[in-house]
Amino acid sequence: MVTTLYRHPAIHLLDGRRSTAGAMLVTDGVIAAVGDPRELAEQAPAGTAVCDLPGAAVIAGFHDAHIHTASLARSLDELDLRDVTTLREALARIERFVREQPGGDGWVTGGRWDANRWADGAPTRAALDRIAPERPLCLSSVDGHSVWLNGEALRRAGIDAGTADPAGGRIERDGDGEPTGILRETAADAVIERAERETTADLAALLERAQARLLGEGITHVTDLDGEDARAAFLRLKADGRLRIRVHKGTPAHALEAAIAEGRRTGDGDDWFTNGPVKLFSDGSLGSHTASMGADFADQPGNHGVEVLDLDELARLVEVAVSGGIAVATHAIGDRANHTVLDAYERAHDAAVRGGLRLRVEHAQHLQPADVARFARLGVIASLQPTHWASDIPLVSSLLGGRELASYAWSALRDAGAAVAFGSDAPVEPSAPMLGVQAAVLRGTAASPGGLEPGLRPVGVEEALSAYTAGPAYAAGLDHRVGRLAPGTLADFVALDRDPFSTEPSELGSIRPVATVVDGLPAFGLD
User: Fold this and answer.
1) Residue 436 domain-assigned?
2) What pLDDT, in 10s, does the model give residues 279-317?
3) Residue 117 maps to which CATH number?
4) Buried b / exposed e across 435-452, counting CB within 10 Å, b at 16+?
């Protein structure tokens, strides 16, 4: 039996009452007691180690409720265009990357481009062919819902003028019907899968690098929504004793029936790895103009987005999952998509409750006002990413201005009684949780990048921190075991260089972890 007394004068319990403690007694990775350091020292068995935690505050370890860890791992070495503001700059960076990157005739991946910021032209295959005609380029948009291909990539993917649009996807074409090089939604799935497969030699090694980065950001648990290859790689790390971050692993839609057949059930597993929900898609994204909206985008008359799954098919898949013991997490950005998902969940509500399964909506960005209360009534979890709001401010006003929508309605959902969980959607957005906390707390204040929003209640610091700790634990059905600093919970916590409760909202994002403890043992800092 290994016992450690962790001491710090500002251990925030995030219990809704602003409670603090001065110490935690940890035995074999589990918190045995929380309270006064002198009293806990008297309770401690002989031989107890003592550790004075650094920093200005200690909270429960962050749990990212929505992350693509394998994609994040791959992005560490990929082409990155996120800060590019013109097509010309993008092409120059791509040309330089291809020239400096070894690989013969292999795929070039990465991207994270945002053409909504470019005033000098649109991404096309012709533009890529002028600078890199020989190697296949598969460059994802910043939202991950479009890819930009050159002619060689289209050739290898077998896509030409005669290729039909798949269900739930779109191949952008020029006036002659030829592919422009932009694929939307499901049209991009096969080429992305091939490019990733042919460029990733050892995903477990990449995940180990990403794990170190996440631990350095205070993240001790992830709900991962990448594919089956990531599942296999995480399990390999676990088998090798190299997994230092807890994983609640989602299942992609295409693997649902196989997962049920093998007996995979949400919640099964151990303290390090549990089976999560199946990930379904209802629509696309705002930036790619594929979010399913109730009205056309302001700048594209006739386009109100892409419905990846209609109500009947979505409801069928939800029923299959729930009857098989698997929870459901459905991506929905637009107001029409969110309404459709709630309709599908309503059909499955009773069965989900009987099975102890928690249904989630991923993103829930733009809601019909009446649907806010439906989240609470149906017990549906709103899995939200506050940094999306900060990135989307220019798009919302230009694409959706003047509509009666409850957009990024974090406080409204909480006030209605809905459960809320925060995440990053990394690598779409940065993974650092304190950036999400800052975005949540700033919104609706005078310091907000979006300005004051009349009638909007800002999210408090404790609310935001709880949504990044207890919220994801509840969404995963693991709230009895993680997400809080209380006796009987796993000893996962982070020490921060500044106390969030005494930091200006505009400075919250710059708070840095100085130590991360997982399972009662140092995982970052505390050398």
Assistant:
1) no
2) 999 999 998 899 999 999 999 999 999 999 999 999 999
3) 3.10.310.70
4) bbbbbbbbbbbeebebee
pLDDT in tens, 79-109: 999 999 999 999 999 999 999 887 678 899 9
Confirm if 136 and 153 have CB atoms less than 8 A apart.
yes
Whether residue 289 is found in the same domain as residue 376: yes
DSSP string, 282-322: S---TTTT-S--SS-BTTBTT-----SS-HHHHHHHHHHHH
491 occurs within a structural domain: no
State the burial class of residue 268 (Cβ atoms within 10 Å of its Cβ: 0-12, 13-18, 19+). Answer: exposed
* pTM beyond 0.85: yes
Q: What is the pLDDT of residues 438-492, one digit of tens each?
A: 999 998 676 677 666 767 888 999 999 999 999 999 999 999 999 999 999 999 9
The predicted structure's pLDDT at residue 451: 67
Over 90: is that where the pLDDT of 233 sits?
yes
Q: How many domains is the chain partitioned into structurally?
A: 2
Q: Alpha carbon of 378 to those of 4, 195, 331, 460: distances in Å? A: 42, 40, 17, 25
Q: Is 383 in a helix, a strand, or coil?
A: strand
CB 382 within 8 A of CB 361: yes
281 and 401 part of one domain = yes
Other C-beta atoms closer than 10 Å to the C-beta of 212 total 13
What DSSP line would sit under 495-510, residue for residue? EESS-GGGS-GGGGGG
CA atoms within 13 A on the CB side of 46: 0
Kindly give the pairing relationship between strand 169-173 and strand 179-185: antiparallel
Residue 480 makes CB contacts below 8 A (sequence gap 6+) with none
Last residue of a domain, one of 199, 222, 245: 199
Sheet holding 108-113, edge to edge: 79-80, 108-113, 137-141, 146-149, 179-185, 169-173
Q: Cα-flanking dihedrals φ and ψ of residue 197, to 5°?
A: -65, -40
Long-range contacts of 166-169 (CB under 8 A, 24+ apart): 168/281, 168/306, 168/307, 168/308, 168/309, 169/306, 169/308
Q: Contact 51/64 with Cβ under 8 angstroms? A: no
Of the two residues 396 and 466, the one the predictor is more confident about is 466
Report pLDDT digits (tens) over 169-180.
999 999 999 999
What is the domain range of residue 137? Answer: 70-199
Considering the domain architecture, whether residues 184 and 304 belong to the same structural domain is answered as no
Say if residue 281 is in the same domain as residue 403: yes
Residue 436 φ then ψ, to 5°? -70, -40
Q: What is the CA radius of gyration of the chain?
A: 23
Cα gap 122→131, rounded to integer Å: 15
**Stretch (H or E) spanning 277:** strand 273-281
Residue that terminates a domain, selected from 199, 215, 232: 199
Has residue 27 been placed in a domain?
A: no
Output phi, psi for 321, to 5 deg: -65, -50
Is residue 246 one of the residues assigned to a domain?
Answer: no
Say if residues 79 and 201 touch (Cβ distance below 8 Å). no
